[in-house]
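Box 4.2: Ligand-aware structure prediction
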Amino acid sequence: NAEDLDKVYSFAIKLARVAGRMLLDSAEQRYIPDGNREVQGLSEKDSSVDIVTKTDEDVESFIKTSIAQQYPEHRFIGEESYSKGASKRYLIDDGPTWCVDPLDGTVNYTHLFPMFCVSIGFVLNSRPIIGVVYAPFLGQLFTARAGHGAWLNEKQRLPLVRDPIPPIPSEAPRNCIFSCEWGKDRRDHPDSNLHRKVESFITMAAEQSGREGKGGMVHGVRCLGSATMDLAYTAMGSFDIWWEGGCWEWDVAAGICILQEAGGLVTAANPPDDVENCSIENAKLGSRLYLAIRPAGPSPNETG
Ligand code: IPD
């Protein structure tokens, strides 16, 4: 019921704040005068770009334990538990499930690039209905609850851009800011995600893209290094479009809730062709392919 969800929401915010403090403390410990930038307990998972640190594990263990104490009947899916085989993917069904990335943007964190965050999504009936994302280095807390809007630092309603917000240009991605990630598939093969992405960057950016009325002269292509932050920035209205192939549920559960509550769209599709046909029904956790569009038109009604 609504009262229970209020409690889950407050609890998720409390967890994110403590977890964010843990991320910040561990990052700050690395600003040491002798210039030693070694990262504690860093190890590789599938490749040298798929990495985990002791901080990812400590923060996930804190969040997982806290949830198990407070809500022993709820399920938990976390990036690091999954990597160790302790939680399974596709566990998402109608039951209450927490979907957590303790540190999204691990590579950024290891390089002390501030675009990293803790991402806590709460999923019910297979839908992310609560999303809390905290980027402690930036001091940005994004929160959302189904039907209650999306917020920055619990004060400013998302999107932040003027109201009413113009729709993204009909010639999108021309004149848009587009965000995408390099991802972890680095195979030098024409069918790899990496090749598909690089080719799409060129199609979107080049003056003569060869596509009639499509592509060409995108205002900018950005790679933040965190899928969660991409969704949060699309919800803010800072990005027009975000696209990524290869995400996991924990990368997107919280961000999808925040984006949808801000009035944005997320679907499983490819840019640039599918931008106009973006349909929210396809926004399923587990699709691994996501195309997000920033809010447009008047802000969604505020109900709480
Ligand atoms: C990754 C980041 C990255 C995205 C990958 C994610 P991690 O998460 O969000 O930007 O391209 O798909 O897995 O490993 O930093 O938690």
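In the box above, the bound molecule is D-MYO-inositol-1-phosphate. The longest strand covers residues 127-135.
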